[in-house]
Structure formats: structure tokens, C-alpha cells
Design goal:
The complex is a heterodimer of chains A (428) and B (303).
Chain A lengths: L1 H23 L4 E8 H9 L1 H7 L3 E8 L1 H13 L8 E5 L4 H6 L21 H4 L3 E2 L2 E2 L2 E2 L5 E6 H6 L10 H14 L7 E3 L5 H9 L17 H15 L3 E3 L2 H9 L5 E5 L2 H8 L7 E4 L17 E5 L6 H13 L1 H11 L12 H4 L10 H7 L13 H17 L6 H16 L6
Parallel strand pairs in A: 1-2, 1-3, 8-9
Antiparallel strand pairs in A: 3-12, 4-5, 6-12, 7-10, 7-11
Helix pairs in contact in A: 2-14, 9-10, 13-14, 17-18
Chain B lengths: L1 H5 L3 H6 L2 H34 L2 E2 L6 E2 L1 H10 L1 H33 L6 H13 L2 H11 L6 H8 L11 H29 L3 H9 L4 H29 L3 H7 L10 H11 L3 H26 L4
Antiparallel strand pairs in B: 1-2
Helix pairs in contact in B: 3-14, 5-9, 5-11, 6-9, 7-12, 9-11, 9-12, 11-14, 13-14
Classes of the chains: A alpha/beta (428), B mainly alpha (303).
């Protein structure tokens, strides 16, 4: 006991020493950051402002594909940290596999006093970034989901978005829109080969693949069953267009859908792909699965981590702290590339409150960020990619093709497959 | 040279007789190759076999012999990948080899002009990089903007969303592989055709055997070993099929075009489950070896 106290004391002193050293020397050197698409662009556009504060740090942002960053990071860690950059972007749902398989590959940010930021971000953003007693990544953007809708098409069919409280209301509104447009305009696009909608609706009902402690399989729990049934109900009602990422954009451009459903980051995709529809769009929070249910869910979102092989950890921390834990950094990325800040204080900045012309003068960021506190936390766990990529997508696609009688039957089978793939037991 | 070596340090003279030294020489020449072979072939083969008995998702990896092999037979996705691979094996390989044989006969015909050009043209797809041609197939079979649907639409035929439906996605993969490998197999079979002695045909012609009968009784039987060779190559290739389904459909939609190769990659490099990926790899290798053995026993007797 006494020895433990002594050891704890020693660690504390060592920690203090580190903290002091960090505070004294201004970091300098060169760092490399791996990220993808608009996220990489947003990070790159941030560098001039960052350099005003830290003129001696040179930041190189490499824009790679999302999948490339993920697999190259895993491969680099498997090779003991070879060829890794100083900072990597990690999607929340794909984070835990990194800490679980390669705990020594990333810096425990407690070394830099990350604890002081814990209550500056919503709890759900942290779930996957902590492991054991370590915090390995700093939250970046989040994906509070919204229904993006065409004001003109809703109006034409006499649909009031404010009256859509449940997904059943959403289905009825979809039927009205179909009727008012001779069946030419569907309510929304769903990619039936992907689990995005299922995860979002299940998230509303506090259900996920696993329980939040990651100790049991939860995919056949009632919340997930209702979610899958609801999606089938929408499809059976004929209000849904099938389409992948590109197909969905095509549907928007050709006015063949009246809504879209994604994380808030889809704002930039609509705005940049359909500039001619400016002023015609609006947003409302996701309808509840059951009357009175939660009207908030999360879809996507990332974080930044520092690799243990980095030669310039101080500089790397200075950069990610500036980018993610200051209003200035987060708002810059929101303005430039529509990345939704998860930093709570960024919600009350002037920019986040201002009305957006493209969205018909609606202050969409405020409306979107207001749902953030209600999002039920969920965990991807280290098995996320394996479970989603093979078992869940197959189950959804088989269920939609009528290979199972009920959603419960489909998800029971998925649960048994997850058990045999991961060894994690089914929740009671 | 020999004399100088004998004058070397006494230790060598004691430990190595001249005969032993002479025997060692070829191994010394082989040593660089053997070292590379041991490090990059033999060791991984042994190591991945050992991995199949370990749980590699914990640190450090734990010895759990039944874990991965037990999961394999109960794994719906593995079984559907297996089913898809067999489907391609049973449908695509026979079609491709039949086409290749016909093509070889046509290319061998004395009536054909510019034979060199045609032979090159049909062989050319093999020269094209897998990534490049897969990207092209993805584009031309795109449901909305693809050339194929453009043509079908212009003819008033239905325009399926090729890559988004299970059956049509599989069809695209099969068409792509067939496009790429038919010419290659045709060239192999053509070489076999040219090895058939001309005097057999001359003798048959003297005896008044009609052309079609010559074809059935001379050409095809004598082609058998070459076709068998092409078949073994194609089967092994199909068992390992990866690039086309990964780059054209990403194994989708759902798992409709997941093959053993793409599933192995998924387990190994996106789920970092090296133990299970090795198990899938060994299952593939066992099946490929079994197939080859069966073929050689049943069809390869005469050679």
C-alpha cells in the first residue's frame, strides 16, 4: 500500500515536471498531419493563424483518402510505429481498435494535461477516445444528425416540418409529397447496403452494436429492433429512393428527393453540390422513433491523436490544442468546410448563431448544436469495423431483401454472428 | 585455387575435408536465394500457420487453438464468400476456358489475316493494370452515367443499376475477369495447338476424315493437358480473386461479391485480426491444393 502511494507520488511529480517543461519552452520544429478530404483542407487552412501564435512550428497536412488514413495508421502501428506522421485523424467509431491493438502507438494526452478539456466537450465524444486510464485523442467535429429538407417541395405538398414529430409522421409527410408530385419526388434517399441509417435510428433509442461498457452484444435489444423495423416500414411505404453517396447527390441535384438525412457535416456537401438551390433548403432535428422519444442522434465525427513515434510531440500538441480546443480553431473549420464543432463553447460564438443564407436564413448551426447534449452516448468498440463491414451490412441487406421474417429474427442472427466473431456475450 | 585454399588456416583444414568443401560450394552460391526464401517465404508460411491457433486481438497474442478454426465454419460471411467464390469458379471459369479454346482455334486458323495483330489484341488486357481496368469497369457500369446503360437505354432496353444489386454486381465482376483473362488463356491454348504435329491431320485427311471429326478426335484430346494446365491456373487464380471485387464493388452490395480474397483482406487489414485472416488464408490454400490434386488425379492421367 505504502509503496503504491509512493509510486503514485513519483508519477505525480514526474507529471508536474513534464507540465512545467511544456509550459516553459515554446514548441518548435516540423510536424506532419494525416487527414482526408474536406477535413484535411480545413486543417490546412488553419495553419497561417496557428503560425501567428507558434511561428516556429511548420505544419504539413497530407490529404489522403479516409480509408487510407485508417489502414495506413493500423499498418504503421503494427510495424511498431514506422513511417507514421506526428498527428493522425481518427474517426470516433474506428478509434478503439487503435488503442486496443496498439496501445503503445499513441501518446496518452494526459501527459499534456488533457483532463482540463474533458468537460469542454460533450460526454458522447469521449467514450471511444479513452481506454484504461488513458485519453488518446482529442475530439474534433461531431455529427449531430438533422433532416435536411426542401422548403419549396414541402410547401407544395402542404407539409409542415414543425409538425413532423415522429418517423411515422415523416412517412405520412412522404406520402403527401409523393401524391402532390405524381410520384416523382420521394421523401428521402437511403443507402440500403450500408448501416448508417440503422445506427442513427438505433442511437436515438440508446441501442448500439454493443453495450456502452463494451462487455456485451446489444444489437438484438428492443431499441435496435424498432430502428430496423422503422427503416423497413419507410421502404415498404414507397417513400424511399435507393442510392449510395453519389446517387444521393444526384437525387438532390435533379429535385427527385425532398429531404436528406445525415450528420450535420452533410451541410457542406449539399451547399457545394447544389449552389443553385440556395435559399430552398432548411433543417429540422430527426423525428422520434416513438412519440415523445429522443430527437437527437450522432452520425460520424473524428478526433486527432499524436503518435508515440513523433519526434515533436510538444509541437503536435500545440497544433491539435489550437485546432480543436479553441473557439477560433473550431469556428474556422466550421466556416471554411462546414465541420461541426464538438467544442461546447463554440456553440455560443456569433458565427454559430448567425442565420445562413443558403438555409433560407435559418440559424442552422444553433439548431443543430442544440441537439448535441441529448445524443445518447454509444461505443464502437475495437470490433466496430469488423462487425459493421461484414455482419451488420449483410444482415440489413438480407433483411431488406426479405430473407428474414422479422427484424428481431435478423438481429438475433446478427447477434449470434457477432458473438462467434468477437467472443463477447449477448447482453441479458 | 585449390592449392591456395589448402594453405589456409589450420582450423579449416581440420574441420572440412576437401570433399565436404566441394559439396558446400553450390550451397554457398544458393545461400543468398535461400536466405531470402527463408525470410520472406518459409518463415511467413510457418508463422501464419502458427497464427491460426492464436487469439491475436489481445496483447500479447494468446494461444487458443480452437478459436479461429471454430469460428470459420460458423461464420455466415465466410460461408457466403466461399459460396461466391465457388459460383465464380463454376460459372466464370468454364465460360472463359470455352471462349479461350474457341478463340485459340480461330487465331490458329490459316484463313485468318493479320494473325499477329489479333493475337496481340486479345492478349492486351493482361498488360493493362488491374487498378486501371477495374476503375474503367466501375465507370462504364455506373447505373446513371455509364456507357453500358447509355447504350442499353438508347436501344430501349432496361437499364439496371448494375453495381447496386447483388445479381448484376456479380455479373459485372464476372464480365470483368472474363474480359481480362480470356485472351491470356487463349494464348496458352494456342501454344498447345501449335504443338500438335501437322502429320496427324495430314494422315487423317488422306484417310478422308472430315474436318469436324479431325477436330473432335485429334485436336481436343491432344489439347487436354494444356487446357488442364489453364484450368488449374484459373482455379487457383479464382480462389485468390481479390482485385476486381475489391476495386469494382468493394465486395458489395451487402456481401454479394465478397470473395475469399476480399474477406481475408478485410480481416487482416481493416480489422487487424491477423489470426483469423491467417486461418482464412490457410483454408483457401488447402482448398486450392485439394482442387489441383483432384484435377491431376482425374484428368491428368495420360501425362
Amino acid at each position: 500500500m505504502r509503496r503504491q502511494i509512493l509510486r503514485a507520488g513519483a508519477i505525480l511529480i514526474a507529471g508536474l515536471g513534464l507540465g512545467l517543461a511544456g509550459a516553459q519552452a515554446a514548441p518548435k520544429g516540423e510536424i506532419t498531419v494525416w487527414s482526408w478530404n474536406i477535413a484535411a483542407e480545413a486543417l490546412d487552412m488553419l495553419v497561417p493563424d496557428f503560425n501567428k501564435k507558434y511561428p516556429d512550428v511548420k505544419v504539413n497536412v497530407l490529404n489522403m483518402g479516409n480509408g487510407d488514413v485508417y489502414t495506413k495508421t493500423l499498418a504503421g502501428c503494427a510495424a511498431g510505429g514506422t513511417d507514421l506522421p506526428d498527428v493522425v485523424t481518427i474517426e470516433n467509431s474506428e478509434a478503439e481498435i487503435q488503442w486496443a491493438r496498439f496501445p503503445d502507438c499513441f501518446v496518452n494526452l494526459k501527459e499534456f494535461g488533457v483532463e482540463k478539456y474533458v468537460d469542454k466537450f460533450p460526454a458522447f465524444k469521449w467514450t471511444e477516445l479513452m481506454a484504461g486510464d488513458g485519453i488518446f485523442s482529442l475530439p474534433w467535429d461531431s455529427g449531430p444528425t438533422m433532416i435536411f429538407y426542401r422548403r419549396d417541395l414541402y410547401e407544395k405538398a402542404g407539409v409542415d416540418p414543425a409538425a413532423i414529430n415522429t418517423w411515422d409522421d415523416f412517412i405520412n409527410a412522404g406520402k403527401k409529397i409523393l401524391a402532390a408530385t405524381n410520384g416523382e419526388v420521394k421523401m428521402v434517399t437511403i443507402d440500403m447496403n450500408e448501416d448508417g441509417w440503422f445506427r442513427a435510428l438505433a442511437n436515438q433509442e440508446s441501442c448500439s452494436y454493443f453495450t456502452n461498457d463494451g462487455e456485451a452484444v446489444a444489437i438484438n435489444q428492443p431499441g435496435c429492433v424498432v430502428a430496423l423495423e422503422m427503416i423497413k416500414k419507410m421502404i415498404d411505404a414507397g417513400i424511399v429512393a435507393n442510392g449510395d453517396w453519389g446517387g444521393q447527390i444526384q437525387n438532390i441535384k435533379t429535385n427527385s428527393v425532398a429531404s436528406a438525412y445525415f450528420g450535420g457535416w452533410y451541410e457542406g456537401t449539399i451547399r457545394s453540390n447544389a449552389p443553385e438551390q440556395s435559399g430552398k433548403w432548411g433543417m429540422y432535428p430527426p423525428p422520434a422513433v416513438e412519440p415523445g422519444g429522443v430527437r437527437a442522434a450522432n452520425w460520424g465525427g473524428s478526433s486527432l491523436a499524436i503518435t508515440s513515434s513523433s519526434k515533436n510531440k510538444e509541437a503536435a500538441w500545440a497544433y491539435i490544442e489550437y485546432a480543436l480546443a479553441t473557439d477560433e480553431g473550431q469556428i474556422s473549420m466550421l466556416r471554411n468546410r462546414g465541420l461541426v464543432p464538438s467544442l461546447l463553447s463554440a456553440v455560443s460564438t456569433d458565427y454559430a448563431k448567425s442565420p445562413m443564407e443558403y438555409w433560407g436564413g435559418q440559424p442552422v448551426w444553433t439548431d443543430m448544436l442544440a441537439t448535441q447534449g441529448n445524443i445518447p452516448p454509444y461505443r464502437g468498440t475495437q470490433y466496430f469495423d469488423e462487425v459493421r463491414g461484414t455482419i451488420v451490412n449483410k444482415t440489413i441487406s438480407d433483411f431488406m431483401n426479405g430473407n428474414y421474417k422479422t427484424a428481431k429474427e435478423a438481429l438475433d442472427f446478427a447477434a449470434s454472428q457477432i458473438v462467434s466473431a468477437t467472443g463477447v456475450p449477448i447482453a441479458q | 585455387m585449390e592449392g591456395r585454399r589448402c594453405a589456409g588456416p589450420p582450423v579449416f583444414r581440420v574441420s572440412l575435408t576437401a570433399a565436404m568443401r566441394r559439396q558446400a560450394v553450390p550451397y554457398l552460391f544458393l545461400a543468398p536465394y535461400l536466405a531470402v526464401f527463408a525470410a520472406f517465404w518459409a518463415w511467413p508460411i510457418v508463422q501464419s500457420f502458427l497464427l491460426t491457433f492464436q487469439n491475436t486481438r489481445v496483447i500479447p497474442p494468446r494461444w487458443q487453438p480452437g478459436l479461429n478454426w471454430g469460428r470459420l465454419l460458423n461464420d455466415a460471411v465466410f460461408l457466403s464468400a466461399l459460396k461466391n467464390t465457388f459460383f465464380i469458379l463454376l460459372v466464370q471459369v468454364p465460360i472463359m476456358l470455352a471462349l479461350a479454346t474457341m478463340l485459340a482455334l480461330a487465331l490458329n486458323s490459316t484463313m485468318l489475316r493479320a494473325r499477329g495483330l489479333f493475337r496481340f489484341a486479345f492478349f492486351a488486357p493482361v498488360v493493362v493494370g488491374e487498378v486501371a481496368y477495374s476503375a474503367l469497369f466501375r465507370l462504364i457500369f455506373n447505373g446513371k452515367f455509364g456507357a453500358v446503360n447509355g447504350a442499353l437505354g438508347a436501344l430501349g432496353l432496361p437499364t439496371p443499376d448494375w453495381l447496386q444489386r447483388p445479381g448484376t454486381a456479380m455479373a459485372v465482376v464476372i464480365i470483368a475477369i472474363t474480359w481480362r483473362w480470356t485472351g491470356y488463356n487463349a494464348i496458352i491454348i494456342l501454344a498447345g495447338l501449335q504443338n500438335i504435329p501437322q502429320d496427324l491431320y495430314e494422315a487423317a485427311a488422306v484417310d478422308g476424315v472430315p474436318r469436324w471429326r479431325q477436330h473432335l478426335s485429334i485436336t481436343l484430346p491432344l489439347l487436354r493437358p494444356v487446357v488442364l494446365f489453364a484450368l488449374v491456373l484459373s482455379i487457383i487464380g479464382t480462389m485468390q480473386l481479390f482485385a476486381e471485387p475489391w476495386l469494382i464493388t468493394l465486395g458489395g452490395p451487402g456481401n454479394a461479391t465478397e470473395t475469399l480474397g476480399t474477406y481475408l483482406y478485410r480481416q487482416g487489414f481493416t480489422s487487424t485480426n491477423f489470426g483469423y485472416a491467417s486461418t482464412v488464408a490457410y483454408a483457401m490454400a488447402l482448398m486450392a491444393a485439394t482442387f489441383s490434386a483432384v484435377q491431376i488425379v482425374f484428368f491428368g492421367r495420360q501425362r
